[in-house]
Amino acid sequence: MNLLLVYANPYTMLWPQPAGLSMVARAAREAGHRVRLVDLMFEADPDATLARALEETRPELVGFTLRNLDNADMKAARSFVPDYVRWVRMASQVAPTLIGGPAVSSAPEPLLRATGATYAMTGQGETSFPVFLRELEAGASTFSAAGLIWREGETLRRNPPDLSGHARGIDWSFIDLAKYKRPYMAHGLVTKTGCAHRCAFCDAPWTAGTTFLTREPEAIVEDLRRDARDYQLNTSEYMLIDTCFNQPLGWAKQVCEAIIRSGLKVGWAAVVEPTPDLDRELCRLMVRAGNTIVTTLVASYDDDVLAQSARPFTAADVAHAFELFEAEEVLYMPQLMFGGPGETRASVETTLRYARRCKPIMIQGGWGVRVYPQAPLRERAVADGQVPAESDLLAPAFYLAPGLDREWLDARSRSVGVSKLAAAPRWARYLWRLARLRW
After folding, report:
1. Which residues does residue 239 pair with via DSSP β-bridges, in sequence order?
2. Residues spanned by CATH 3.40.50.280 within the chain?
3. Per residue in 117-134, pLDDT tens?
């Protein structure tokens, strides 16, 4: 089949490459299909770019990866669904359409209905997409492909998704690297999928799997070798595609040790959560293996707020983790998320007092918690009267603990910060770590 695959991501924060779509494209090409991938992220006129690609490719199927429902910002919410609806309807005039990606796994049936796409697919598509294409070519009206959603009359049929993890990494041959080779722009590196944590605000366990599905350390290192040999990506920083790099702890250490043994000079950032098992050995191994910076969604320094959001750590664990980071020169950037279940003015002030004592390279702070369709927070938001029970949650909807004043919370969250003078030595260390990659 002649396929057009579209990376429909208008959200440029951190400039994520079409990692998952490249893996799906590779699987389709290996199954004998003709594949073209179009990336709309940096396009000044994405509608014109898509129209041109449809005309030039004349596809038999158009597949869309939809990454984010919105920007998850309560203060200045922006939905991406109208863009998706417009683009899918443009493509549907030319060929059958299939939508997939994280946003679809989060809200599959609502997005299928809103966009009018012919099909939707949840979960990971490397195995299931070629199966679907084979069945589609054979003229099937019912399908066995994992994760597929299709219509039979007025009924939507749905197969369970494939959440078995990734054996291989990103296929850069499908990606226009010129767009992503900008100063201080990180490239993706797939290390694992899924998440064993059940945080109230997150739907990752339901959309990506309830266990950590790790890749073999040597396979990760082989990706790094290939990237350096074929694409010269070793001169820039990586961002690990991983919900919580430090778990399982033993595996994380093995990954670091494999990178160290390889002799490769690489730099990488990662999400590291302050879980109770985080230890000094991992911190030391990360720095030796090329870690440049870690980010962690601490959310709060109040134990009650952490417990009501089902975070896998306590305030004492946060303090211990940050002490380790500072002692072992792991540069870290906490992310604070005010307004979750149990939040009060007192808990906000507790978090702010602690934030002023720690020594990160920078701090990010925001307020309001996006309510996702399959996240446990939805039930709490409905019970508190903040989200209608019948809402499909395609439009941005947020939880804010009852009793908190938005203007006060906005002012307090904006007070979070690290002085430029205090952070200067840490920024110098970070820039030095990046500069070493280019020598």
Report:
1. 188, 269
2. 2-158
3. 999 999 999 999 999 999
